[in-house]
Amino acid sequence: QVQLVESGGGLVQPGGSLTLSCATSGTGYTVFSMAWYRQPPGQQRAMVARISSDGSATYGASVKGRFTISRDVAENTVDLRLNSLKPEDTAVYYCNLNGDYRGKYLDIWGQGTLVTVSL
After folding, report:
1. In which residue ranges of the chain is pLDDT below 70?
2. 3-state secondary structure of 89
């Protein structure tokens, strides 16, 4: 069974930085891509960044140039570096995995970690 656990959220001042980490567990599965989503209070969940199995990354327009997604295949972790944070970046951030396990499509979510950007 594949599980995701996020960490690294917290309170940070505007202009500050934070790194979120997503640890994966389980064996025997193939990863197509991993991504970070976020859900601000009262809003829908939206993609922040995605990294594919070939290492290519895509970003949401509001975070491009400020956030960086990276993956450590050996450690089975995916990090999201958040720079130049703004109050509107406040949200619960979720890790997501798309992949395959014995022919079954996987769409796995972590429990989320809260990022609050405020003075």
Report:
1. none
2. helix
